[in-house]
Structures are given as C-alpha cells and as structure tokens.
Design a protein that fits this description.
CATH architecture of the largest domain: 3-Layer(aba) Sandwich
Structural class: alpha/beta
Distance between the termini: 37 Å
Strand order of the largest sheet: 12-11-8-13-16-17-19-20
CATH superfamily of the largest domain: CoaB-like
Helix content: 25-40%
Number of domains: 2
Radius of gyration: 29 Å
Largest sheet: 8 strands, mixed
Length: 405
C-alpha cells in the first residue's frame, strides 16, 4: 500500500449501523501509514462515539459546522481541500441524496460541496432504499459528477432483510482508496520512443579509452517505463553492465559517432529521450597499436576533437523531428542555471537536470534527484528511485502526446 504511506484521507462517517466498520477502516488506514481526519454527522454519533474515532485517528473529530474551536483551527474550506481523498463511509441514503442535490446544511455536506478533491463513497442502507428510484437517480448523478463508489455488498441486513445494501468491508474500501490514489497508467500505445542510455567510449588505442561513470540505469529505466506505457521502444545503449529491457529493440554502440548514426537511423519517432552520457570529445587519431611507456620519454600528446552533438542534431531537424525531445544535464554545480542554458542551446523541449557531484550517489546509484526544466517552468522532483523518475517522465510525455493534434 505504498500510495497510502503519505496520503491524507478525510473520512466522513454517516449515521447507520455500518458506522462501526468505519473504526476498523481508520485502523487499517493508519496501519498503512495514512493520516486520517474524521468528520462525523450527528446521526453517526448515535452508533459510535467521537472519542473512539479520535483515539484511532490520533486527530480530533470534527462534528459541528458552527464550532468556533474547529473553525479557528481548521475551517471547513481548508478541511475540504487539505486531503488527498475524501471517503464517505457509511454513505447513507440521506447523505447521498444531499450530496446529489448540492445541499450544505451540516459540516459533512458543506465540506463535500466545497471540496476540489475526489470523493469515494461506500454506500450502506436497506435493500429497498438502495433499489429505490430516487437513490438510483442520486447515485447516477454523483457518478456523473465524478464520484467513485465501492460496494454495496449483498447479504443479510441488520433489519433482517437480504440483498444489496451492506457497506463494503474495510479491506475492500482500503483497496478502493489505494486505487483512487494511484495515478492512471500513462498510455503511449502506437507511439515510437527512442531512448539513448549509458556512456559512450572513445578509443585511445586498442587498450585504452575515454569514457565517464554513467551506469545506464536511468536511461534503461526510461525505456522500460515507455514499454510499460505501451510504446514501441528503440533503446540505443552504450556499454553497460545491466540487462536490456525485454520488449525493446536494442542497438548496442560504443562511440558517440555510432550512437549518432543509430539515433538518426531510428527515426521517425514521436519521443526522443537523450539520457546517454555522450563523450564530448574523442581522440583525433586513435593509435592502431598500444601506446607503450618508455623510460624518460614525455607523456604522449592526445589531440581531441569534438564529438557530434546528438541532442542538438535531433532537436533541430527540419524533417521528422520528434514531437518531444528531452535532454539530460549531469552537472556538478549551478544545476538549474546550466540546464536552462542547455535547453536554449540544444533546442530541445525539456532538460532533466541532476547534480552528480561526488558524494551524492547519483552516478551508478539507485536513486536520482532531478529538476525538469522547460521554457515555461522548472519542476523540482524530490529524491526517488530512478524507476520512479522514469515513470514520472513518461507520464509527462504521455500527457503531452495525448494533447497532440
């Protein structure tokens, strides 16, 4: 339940015998790491006590719309918007009816009307009330407005009748909360994504070469995330010690020139992510035989020439330029400032900037901490796994791809 580990849940408890299950729901949410605020209707207090809910949630229960104390500490407007999700359990026929008709005559309905967050309802009522035409209309109205539902289950009622109307069990509600908090999976079906990854190596002689510390973990994670989103993926990889993502077309290269050729050959593409750490220079004239050290002789002079700029070449293409071109900037100082300069110089759409200074554990490590830089803004992402960075980046790409004409 990783999505619940830092989630803020506002639980509204309606008045019905199923309210006792709300206490178990609070316990399960707290065990999963969520923070829980509770609002109780007046009717709910006939079935469970505010003290029970407060003890389990470790927060004071909100009860009255016109409480000077509650409004001073957290007004109903802030309460309605400070959570990640509002859960109504049990959602009685009365609460559902008032929600569907926009009433705001107590703290619960006022909070629900004022919220800009998603609402998940767990209905609980007599079977005849659940099947009644007004309830069916109210449920349809709320569903049309974007409300989510879990249950009701079918079974014996407290009143002795049998049928649909029992509130879903707390475990099922927790599962529904987790699903509601999980962002929709990015969809890149039918799109071609090209990713460069890893280092390049530039030979000095048959034994030695110029290279860098890139492990390829971030680029390979991006390729895997694009595959998971349904894209056709071409991965152009320098020498790395990690496995190729299954399902990708992988082109193994060594030098920057080879990577350039492979990148141009992989076009057309919808998205191009230049995650590879390409060597900026190569040896002008690599030796055909190993350079031997001779006693008393001066160190050999190694003349360098600039390598092709793959990112700028792809981003500046007049024909078959990918709609989204993303570069990476591995910096050791002035990370965002240098990334902004790179964005302008290369002509790409985004630059993913990270600080790879010694001691940060980024090069070769499992985590990354990046800023996503565009002309419009800078998004600072907290430190997270490289797989999570990849998923977030692909989600951005999917959102932009969906908006294409």
């Amino acid at each position: 339940m990783t999505r619940l580990a830092s989630a803020k849940i506002l639980l509204i408890i309606g008045g019905g015998i199923a309210a006792y299950k709300a206490l178990e729901l609070i316990r399960r949410l707290k065990d999963a790491g969520a923070a829980v605020e509770v609002v109780m209707t007046e009717a709910a207090k006939h079935f469970i006590t505010p003290l029970s809910a407060a003890s389990l949630s470790a927060n004071p229960v909100r009860e009255a719309l016109f409480s000077l104390d509650d409004e001073a500490r957290m007004g109903h407007i802030e309460l309605s918007r400070s959570s990640d999700l509002i859960v109504v359990a049990p959602a009685t026929a009365d609460l559902i009816a008032r929600m569907a008709n926009g009433l705001a005559n107590d703290l619960a309905t006022t909070t629900l009307l004022a919220t800009d967050k998603r609402v998940l309802l767990a209905p609980a009522m007599n079977v005849r009330m659940w099947l009644a035409a007004p309830t069916r209309r109210n449920v349809a109205t709320l569903a049309g407005d974007g409300a989510l539902f879990v249950g009701p289950d079918e079974g014996a009622m407290a009143c002795g009748e049998f049928g649909p109307g029992r509130m879903a069990e707390p475990a099922a509600i927790v599962d529904a909360i987790h699903k509601a908090l999980t962002p929709p999976k990015p969809n890149l079906a039918g799109r071609h994504v090209v990713v460069t990854s890893g280092p390049t190596i530039e030979p000095i002689d048959p034994v030695r070469f110029l290279s860098n510390r890139s492990s390829g973990r971030q680029g390979h994670a991006i390729a895997a995330a694009a595959l998971d989103a349904g894209a056709k993926v071409t991965l152009i990889s320098g020498p790395v010690a990690i496995e190729d993502p299954k399902g990708a077309r992988v082109i193994h290269v060594e030098t920057a020139a080879q990577m350039m050729s492979a990148a141009e050959g992989a076009l057309p593409a919808d998205i191009f992510v230049a995650a590879a750490a390409v060597s900026d220079w190569r040896i002008a004239a690599p030796r055909g035989a190993k350079i031997k050290k001779k006693a008393g002789a001066a160190a050999p002079h190694l003349a360098l020439v600039e390598n092709p700029d793959i990112l700028r070449a792809i981003a500046s293409r007049a024909k078959d330029r990918p709609k989204i071109v993303i570069g990476f900037a591995a910096e050791t100082e002035n990370t965002v400032e240098n990334a902004k300069k790179k964005l302008g110089a290369k002509g790409c759409d985004f630059v993913v900037a990270n600080n790879v200074a010694e001691g940060r554990g980024i090069f070769g490590g499992a985590d990354n901490e990046v800023a996503l830089v565009s002309v419009a803004d800078v998004q600072h992402w907290p430190r997270m796994s490289k797989e999570e960075v990849a998923r977030k980046l692909i989600a951005v790409c999917a959102g932009l791809s969906d908006s294409s004409p």
